[in-house]
Amino acid sequence: MEYIVVFITTPSFEEAKKIAYYLIENKTAACVNIVEKVNSTFFWQGNVENYDEALMIVKTKKNLFGKLKEEVKKLHSYSVPEIIALPIIDGSEDYLNWIDESLER
Length: 105
Fold this sequence. Notes:
4 strands
């Protein structure tokens, strides 16, 4: 099974917590870490923007990414939220087994 880490930025810690809880409850994520404050600089609609955001670090499986992405888009306040997935190339067997168990409950 292929495991992934998904990065999602949100405008606030509160929004990140709401999305995280939904993902866990609906079995599309095994764990979500939230970094309360990251600074993001990016190009948007013709301007360079700079905002403080919350960063979600989501552990899940690749086959759940499509569902996770759609769920996040429904809950997220941005019109174009960052939802990007990176592969987990290796990990503790116990932790990866825990991801499986958490998503199959």
